[in-house]
Design goal:
Blueprint: E1 5-11, H1 17-28, E2 34-40, H2 47-57, E3 61-65, H3 72-81, E4 87-90, H4 102-110, E5 116-120, H5 134-149, E6 163-166, H6 167-173, H7 184-190, E7 198-202, H8 217-231
Parallel strand pairs: 1-2, 1-4, 2-3, 5-7
Antiparallel strand pairs: 4-6, 5-6
Helix pairs in contact: 5-8
Length: 233
Amino acid sequence: MTTDISIVVPCYNERENVPLFFYKIEKALSFSNWEIIFVDDNSPDGTIEAVRELSRFDPRVRGIRRIGRRGLSSAVIEGAMSSSAPLIAVMDGDLQHDEHCLVPMISSITQDGYDLVVASRYLEGGSNGGLTNSWRRFLSNAGRWLARIILRISLSDPMSGFFVIQRQHFDNRAEKLSRKGFKILLDLILSDRAALKITEVPMVFRPRLHGSSKLDWKVMLSFMGLVIRHMKK
């Protein structure tokens, strides 16, 4: 049986969320042949053990344990490169991304011919309510402003961490991507001059149930490095 879509989930200390994530995907994508690739940066809470427990009962779940390597972008790249599916989805493992968005996102590519589909908190019908404190809202809004004004990205939510892309376009850009960043969506869009046909779907960004947010000043510094790198091109 061939796989239609690989869902790459970079994670760190998400043990409690792993089975919940799986069940949500199983329910949302009952019509499709899918797999989930959890890429774990050697979490001390035993995230990879939770992934392995699931994979023993369902081969659609795979896990990559990375030792001595950290970072969201490099995790996404490794997960995507381990897959042969024609579509690559990238989602956070903290359950804040609404898995029901996957259906219209997949349809936008397979039926409407888009190359990349982004789940946006800022379209009508979407919400950023999961950003539960003023610091996280500030970082998110600042990054969004920088991407839209300085890099001239027209997306309503260029800071989104939830997107689906045709694998051929990921492959074509993979060697040009930064392994050190946290906002791989922007890097994918800016890493190649060949235009992508992009659309967005609204997403309600949910509050986190377990674990803690990874959005901090280090993420913002990394993002600023990405902005500077692409400004120089």
